[in-house]
Amino acid sequence: MEKAIMTQIEKWKNSAVLTEAEKKELEAMTQEELASAFARDLEFGTAGLRGVMGLGTARMNIYVIRRATKGLAIYLKNHFQAPKVVISYDSRNHSREYAEAAAGVLAKAGVETYIYGEMMPVPVLSYTTRYLKCNAGIMITASHNPKQYNGYKVYAATGGQILDAAADEILGEIMSLDMFDDVDYYDFDEAMAKDCKYVPEEVYESFLAQAEAASKLTSERDLEIVYTPLNGSGARPVQDILARNGFNKVSVVKEQLEPNGDFPTCPSPNPEKVEVYELALELAKEKNADVIVATDPDCDRVGVMAKRGSQWVLMTGNQLGILLTDYIAGQVENPETKTMVTSVVSTPMVNKIAAAYGIGMRRTLVGFKYIGEQIDLLGDGFMFGFEESNGYLVGRYARDKDGVVAAKLACQMAAFYKAQGKTLIDVLDGLYEKFGHCVDQTVSVDLDDISQAKGIMEAIATRDAAEKVFGETSEFVNYSADETGLPKANMIQIEKEDGTRVIVRPSGTEPKVKLYMSFYEEDQEKLEERKTEILTNFKKII
Fold first, then answer.
1. Is the pTM of the predicted complex or chain greater than 0.90?
2. Could you give the CA distance from residue 51 to residue 58 in angstroms, rounded to a whole number?
3. How many other C-beta atoms are found inside a 10 Å radius of the C-beta of residue 432?
């Protein structure tokens, strides 16, 4: 084991801050477990912190949370005369504990702090940051990751996640701090007696009103809905907003209703995965439902299942984005004055739909914070934003993806088409017939360590290497180059004349490289051949 790692381990074992139980836990860890837990500092980036929970510098724990919050407090006091912060959290194990720890650090640093008295999702935190005119927001969540994970997201005054420059400056402050010696804090009761207070209920009510106003589209309400919050923070707001909009035939999966960080019925609570819908499908068959809606633990993503005949089909994030683009564009006034925003890795098919309505189109780098940035630039011209990873937003009340309003929109849309005798799958098939059958698929190539991603991207960052993987190219764009007009990003896009598009980028939080593949192809056999060829060649290169 490296000397630096051994030094860190001994420091933790001898710390006066750790409890006796925590010290015993460290003593019980194997050498391999210790080496992994202390291999590095958990990285703080534009997505904040995210990692497996446990003791150690490379894990999510209360000490890492406190250090990060002290760094944030220093940054805020350097930039604002009397900074304010709001904190929320989801249903994950230790989320409330981490939120209280952050509040204690901020209060000790003299930062006025608000905290939610109950779990609230990402879109509510985003809205609250704006409503209370806070300089920053903190969301304790690991989104849709497996149950072992937790995380720490930081939001700017805009309600969007912090951008790169702010993240770099906060990271610098964090890294200058000793994990124990430089971090002082109140316990939560002391914090509540000082500069910390609970967020008033009026803020939540205002969120619902603003979210409802952002999506007043025409639709019927005759719809049998099955909803699952996957034991997360969407339970209250999604049920509330559906009820406010007259959807009174909503059945909730009872096993997945109450908050539970162990996610006992779906250890990886990701609405993009069909396995999380097992209980929802049983209930849908019992109720003869028209649509199934699911939100992840922090309720920033939504998944939808709809019927093709008697079979249930889980739509991809791109497919739901295609449907919502067409549905919203078909009802918005003066579409030629509107612009939709999506990420560069989301389906190219929405370009065709937007063009058909005369709607403008903007593409951003991956991360909803970039879409949020465009909302401020577009003002009233913003129509709709989405990412292929099941994140959607209408309106300007928030600056992050919103599973609450997206759930309502999906139900409005399903009811609108049900009145015409169509399912969502029927409508999707009609769009494919009109604009071409675009198949989008994301494939992840797992790595041994996140550090390997850099070498892999360098290995294919030339036209010669890319052509070995993808064949002759008509366009080759390396998004790490300056001339693209976008900020620098470690991402490569290759397009062929037949419409095939492949984008390669490393994951920002996990040891994997992602390939976003788009094909205009209806023949399933040919489609599989093309995907297999690309994956085989890619793996040869790396």
1. yes
2. 7
3. 17
Number of separate helices (H) and strands (E) present in the chain:
19, 20
Q: Which residues make Cβ contacts (< 8 Å) with residue 24, sequence separation at least 6? A: none
The residues that are catalytic are 143
What phi and psi, each to the nearest 5 degrees, are found at residue 505? -150, 150
The percent of residues in the chain predicted with pLDDT above 90, rounded, is 74
Nearest CA to 43 out of 175, 184, 140, 208 is that of: 175
Burial class for 75, CB neighbours closer than 10 Å (0-12, 13-18, 19+): buried
- Kindly provide the residue ranges of all beta strands, DSSP E only, lying in 148-271, ordered along the sequence: 149-156, 196-198, 225-228, 250-252
Tokens 């969120």 -> residue: 207
Provide the b/e sequence for 6-21 (b: ≥16 CB within 10 Å).
eebbeebeebeebeee
Residues 6 or more apart whose Cβ sits within 8 Å of residue 271: 144, 230, 294, 295, 296, 301, 302, 303, 390
User: Is the Cβ–Cβ distance between 329 and 217 less than 8 Å?
Assistant: no
Cβ neighbors of 158 (< 8 A, separation 6 or more) are 129, 130, 372, 373, 376, 399
Q: Where do the DSSP E strands lie in 398-500?
A: 438-446, 475-478, 492-495
Q: Rg for the chain (alpha carbons), in Å?
A: 23
The span from the CA of 186 to the CA of 174, in Å, is: 19
Residue 175 has which token pair?
Answer: 């890294």
Are the C-beta atoms of 293 and 226 separated by less than 8 Å? yes
Q: Give the β-pairing of 391-393 and 438-446.
A: unpaired
Sequence-ordered list of residues with C-beta below 8 angstroms from that of 302, at least 6 positions apart, any chain? 271, 293, 294, 295, 320, 390, 392, 403, 406, 407, 410
The secondary structure of 179-207 as a DSSP string is: TTTT-----HHHHHHTTEEEPPHHHHHHH
Mean pLDDT, all residues of the chain: 92
pLDDT at 493: 83
Contact of 99 with 89, CB cutoff 8 Å: yes
DSSP 162: P
What angle, rounded to 10 degrees, do the helices at 424-435 and 403-418 form? Answer: 90
Cα angle: 133, vertex 139, 142; to 5 degrees: 160
pLDDT of 499 strictly over 90 = no
Count of beta carbons in the 10 Å neighbourhood of residue 216: 11
Torsion of CA 318, 321, 326, 330, to 10 degrees: 180
- Are 327 and 348 in contact, with CB atoms under 8 Å apart? no
Q: What are the tens digits of pLDDT across the range 143-157?
A: 999 999 999 999 999
- Confidence (pLDDT) at 354: 97
